[in-house]
Specification:
The protein has 322 residues and is α/β, with parallel strands linked by helices. The protein contains 10 helices and 16 strands. It is 29% helix and 28% strand. The strands form 3 sheets. Strands 3, 5, 6, 7, 8, 15 and 16 form a 7-stranded mixed beta sheet that branches. The chain has a 6-stranded parallel beta sheet with strand order 11-10-9-12-13-14, sandwiched between helices. The mean pLDDT is 94. It comes from Bradyrhizobium cytisi.
Length: 322
């Protein structure tokens, strides 16, 4: 089968053996894949959690059909339309744990379905389960113009947030954040953004920040969060190391929580997918929660899809069809 594989000379489309499902695995005939920021690093040879390096089939998000079931797989049948996350997505066939997938709603095509699994699982966990958003609270999403950022704003709005603030350093994308739930859009590269947030929240700050940037905005986040507020760190777009104002953190009594899928067990991941199904799946099926598709590429043009992502001018998801 065809797959996009990282090798000694970089990533390229190669012929590899079709995988065979074992245990609780499902074999998926992939029809479309969503690109994610972590894919760009792995394409350069970086390791993401336990995955990466030479011989790795890249990709972590897909939509397609069940082609075969492992002996212990439950909940789906051959032919079912599904979407999910996991390794080796950029291929004609991939394997997925039966608890790490969703049924693709009948009103979505494969390209649309491929935009959702990572964003839904990541941001329901960050905003609701870990972030504990409550009706009437104010929420700030750092890096809001990414696919997962757009989903975070929509989930916060769905759960009753009275104010949703999104950040983007790009003027065009910042101008479109109100289409996806933002009441206020700020430029996190402008030091005055904290003053804008404080003004919008009557000087108190926000109840919750979901931070995909970290690094350079870490101390500004502390200043923009209210006393007893929460910061959920889900990303490293602003760097992995930075100065941190421990005194401000303590004075405001902020709960600072780190989350990632890289160190979660399969049981923990299954629980996250279960929570999405229980809590917000009706909003997915009704298309209340959805993501814009910036551009669709054919599999033979997957390098062009990555070039488009690395240009960092897109809004929403970049999709590759297989």
């Amino acid at each position: 089968m065809k797959a996009y594989v990282y090798g000694p000379d970089g990533a390229r489309i190669s012929d590899v053996a079709q995988p065979k499902p074992e245990g609780t695995q499902v074999l998926v005939r992939v029809r479309a894949c969503g690109l994610n920021r972590a894919d760009t690093g792995m394409r350069r040879g970086h390791v993401h959690g336990a995955a990466g390096g030479a011989g790795t089939v890249l990709g972590m998000e897909w939509a397609g059909e069940v082609a075969e079931l492992g002996p212990d797989a439950k909940g789906v049948r051959v032919g079912d339309r599904i979407m999910g996350s996991g390794g080796a997505a950029f291929a004609e066939y991939t394997l997925a744990d039966h608890g790490r997938l969703f049924r693709a709603p009948s009103n979505m095509n494969f390209e649309e379905a491929a935009t959702l699994p990572v964003a839904l699982a990541t941001m329901h966990n960050a905003v609701v389960t870990v972030g504990g958003v409550q009706p009437g609270q104010a929420v700030l999403i750092q890096g809001a113009s990414s696919g997962v950022g757009l989903m975070a704003m929509q989930i916060a709005r769905l759960k009753g947030a009275r104010m949703v603030i999104g950040s983007s350093t790009d003027a065009y994308r910042r101008g479109r954040l109100t289409e996806y739930g933002a009441d206020l859009a700020v430029d996190s590269s402008d030091p005055k953004w904290v003053d804008e947030v404080l003004k919008a929240t009557n000087g108190e700050g926000v109840d919750l920040i979901v931070d995909q940037v970290s690094g350079k905005v870490a101390n500004q986040n502390l200043a923009a969060t209210k006393i007893l507020g929460r910061i959920v760190n889900v990303g490293r777009l602003g760097g992995t190391h930075a100065d941190f104002n421990f005194d401000l953190h303590a004075a405001r009594r902020i709960s600072y929580i780190g989350v990632t899928f890289r160190t979660r067990t399969i049981e923990e991941v299954r629980a996250i997918f279960d929570e999405v199904r229980k809590d917000i799946w009706g909003a997915v099926e009704s298309r209340k929660l959805q993501l814009p598709i910036d551009k669709v590429y054919g599999f033979d043009d997957i390098d062009k899809a990555f070039e488009h992502m690395e240009a960092n001018k897109h809004l929403g998801k970049i999709v590759v069809t297989v």
